[in-house]
Amino acid sequence: MSLLEHLSAKLAAIEAQSLKRALRRADTGTAPRQTINGRPLLMFCANDYLGLAAEPALADALAEGARKWGGGSGASPLVSGHSAAHEAVTDTLARWYAPHIPQARAISFCTGYMANLAVVTALGDEHTEIFSEQLNHASLIDAARLAKATVTRYGHADVAGLRTLLAASTAKVKLIVTDAVFSMDGDLAPVPELLALASEFDAWLVVDDAHGFGVLGAQGRGTLEHFGLNSERLILIGTLGKAAGLAGAFVVAHATITEYLLQAARNFIFSTASPPAIEHALLTSLALIEGPVGQARRANLVALQARLRTGLETLIQAHPALGWALTPATTPIQPLIVGGNADVMLAAARLEAGGIRVPGIRPPTVAAGTARLRITLCGTHTEADVDQLLATLRATAQELEAA
Ligand SMILES: *Cc1c(COP(=O)(O)O)cnc(C)c1O
Question: Where is the Aminotransferase class I/classII large domain (predicted)?
Answer without folding.
Answer: 41-392
